[in-house]
Amino acid sequence: MRSSLLGCFALALLFGCGSLSAQSRLQSDDVDPAFQARVNAEQSALAKLRVDYPALFAAAYARYPEIPTGTLEAIAHVQTRWVHLQAAPHKDHAPESATAIGLMGLYAGDGFSDQVGEAAALLGVARGQIESDPYWNVMAAAALLSAKSQRSAPALSEAQLLQAYAGFGKQRSGDRIDAFARESFAFDVLLSIDRGVDDHGVLIKSRPIDWEAQFDVEALSRQRAPFVRLDLKRGTVEADGYRIDTLDESLRAPASLASAQAKSTDYGPALWVASPYYHSRGTAATAVTIHTMQGSYAGSISWFKSNPYSVSAHYLIRSSDGQITQMVRESSAAHHVGSENNYTLGIEHEGYVNNAAWYTTAMYNASAALTRHFCSRYGISCASAYSGPAHSGVVVLSSAIRIKGHQHFPNNTHTDPGINWSWSRYYSLLNPGAGGGTTRILDTFESNEGHFTSTPSYSGSTTGISANSTAVRDCAMSRVGSCSEHLTLIDNSANSSAWSVRFLSGGGAPASNTSFSRNGRIGFWVFVAGSGFSVGVGIDDSSDGTERSTLRAVNANTWTYVEWDLSNAAQWNTWVGGNGTINSANVTLDAIWLERAHTTYTVNVHLDEVQWRPN
């Protein structure tokens, strides 16, 4: 069906192919240099500990040759990121109370299967050896996989074998939540194999996965499985009613199937499975709690469905791709932060506090978009987020700081998200643009297209492009959050005019747009998969028509933030009745402009986070 190498080659021709190295995931322009230096030192130390692990995997494959190559390494990556986890004492809050054990992240009961005990019986060794010795921990996982395979007839596919192996309680017919957890686990393991991993000593050789042979179409759509079609003339192709996006190699289900899936009714990008652990708030939601699971995404979903401590969270986020699952309605109080449950909304992030590799760009972006949704819906100021240094212990912060970690709330003993969570990076995602303390986001494209409901060819001021050009919300690529607005600009073959695209906000009607003060700056993020573009904005100045900004050149194949000072006359030109100066106290956005010299190529443009910020 697909080839990862050919897929990357095709994408490189169109957009450039990104590295999957740890550096590309961990570094950010918004991260404090001292924080980044500490993270780099941590990752280097972990790399030294991983030197002997490939030999352990090789020994296990020699003993159990029926196990597909790469499976053990990928399980270790998904469960522990190749860190040998010590058995932890149980606590009052899970999944922190149900930490997996050893390099392979094996479970030992207490709401999960007793993988350690089962493997000890298969191998004839003591439980303590499996828990403490990485060699026996890897052998234990191999023995469990082999036993699951031998007990099954007919032979299991890799995905089926992984789902049978996953230690999420008993496989019961009709248990939708555990089935979803097992599916998520199997998908994440196979995704690690399909992509390959080279991450500070974590080495998994890429092996293309035949995704259709592993999962049915509903599961592939639900998990946003990767696909590639080599079609250099189009940005997308259709196959059996499914749209395959060559920008990110992902499958989009048709509306008929998407509507049949369990989707969150509170937050559009999230999936929905229900936890039984919640109660009535009795008060408004006024704060957000950032958690680290101390466990895996799939295991935590299973845990929040059934655990001895009745704990839960509103949302969970996967590290590898930022997938979000909701388990408690926002209107209810989840059981996640003790005495502070009634007024808080909780987000659990996959991973462990002592390894920054879990906190990927995809996870940060997905989490920030979700928190921005909270800010908008419940009147929580995103500027009230904590932005200081990360802490390793409990540090109670002022109640005026409304977005903070579990470790920052009173009356608790937990230390997540811990020393590896970059609060400065998170704050900048919540408040994009410099000085974002009172930034107003005009359009996020997270749940809908907002004011940008026209097509790029709608305006009579647009020249050079075809009427077949399109604009759609795209949740495969974004700068902040999960979605952006995707413009596909197609040349008008009837002429050779330069491209001048006026992408209207509010259909060009000032009354349909959000008003903002002249004393500030208007800006947005833009990604252009082609060189030679300049961008600008038009502002409806209620006193004397419309003013058009100067143009900003943008680099190809990278996100660029552009903005204009509304009060600086040097940045504005007269247009449609304007005088070249913005005079009104309050104005609205008329349109985003995109210009370039004539080209016959179709070009993809993404816009994100249209915003105003004060001077």
Question: How would you describe what is shown here?
Answer:
The termini are far apart. 49% of the residues are buried. The protein has 615 residues and is an alpha+beta fold. 27% of the residues lie in helices and 21% in strands. Strand 4 (242-245) and strand 5 form a beta hairpin. It is globular. Helix 8 (134-150) packs across helix 9 (158-165) and helix 9 (158-165) crosses helix 10 (176-195).
Quick recap:
The protein folds into three domains: 31-215, no CATH class; 271-431, Lysozyme-like; 443-614, Jelly Rolls, CATH 2.60.120. It is 27% helix and 21% strand.
Write the layout of secondary structure elements.
Blueprint: H1 4-14, H2 22-26, H3 33-49, H4 53-63, H5 71-80, H6 115-123, H7 127-132, H8 134-150, H9 158-165, H10 176-195, E1 197-199, E2 202-204, H11 211-214, H12 217-222, E3 236-239, E4 242-245, E5 250-252, H13 255-258, E6 271-272, E7 278-280, E8 287-292, H14 297-305, E9 315-317, E10 324-326, E11 332-334, E12 344-349, H15 361-378, E13 403-405, H16 423-430, E14 440-443, E15 470-474, E16 484-489, E17 499-504, E18 516-517, E19 520-528, E20 534-541, E21 545-549, E22 552-553, E23 559-565, E24 572-575, E25 586-596, E26 603-614
